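For concreteness, we quote verbatim a single protein encoded this way:
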Amino acid sequence: MKITVETEITAPVDIVWLAYTSPGDIMQWNAASDDWHTTSAVVDLREGGTFTSRMEAKDGSMGFDFAGTYTKVIEQQLIEYAFGDRAARVEFSHHTNGTTVRVTFDSEPSHSIDQQRQGWQAILDNFKRHAEKRNRS
């Protein structure tokens, strides 16, 4: 099953794109809750390129690598990637008031659809705050 989350960001698409794809930025926004953080991020943003983000609980109790391969990249418009046997699509749509970011991903069986939607939406909400703050600076 595919799940979609999205957000409206008050910032131009070039700033939103950089905030979404730059390793330094990813480390600032890529967490679903305040007790988690991303300790490293590597991005080779091209078709066939790979990415890895190390996500860890701040108390050190657990962590995991979120990694995959980019399958399609259209600058400031689209990123598609495979991670394990799943896939995701990130669309960037510029409009007068800013940019819409829509993420559609394949669900996995170990968590409910609602849990997955809430987790990915929480990360996207963190991204929105980060991108809008970056736009103001």
In short: The helical segments are 13-21, 23-29, 113-136. The first strand starts at residue 2 and ends at 9. The beta strands are 2-9, 36-43, 50-57, 63-74, 78-83, 86-95, 98-106.
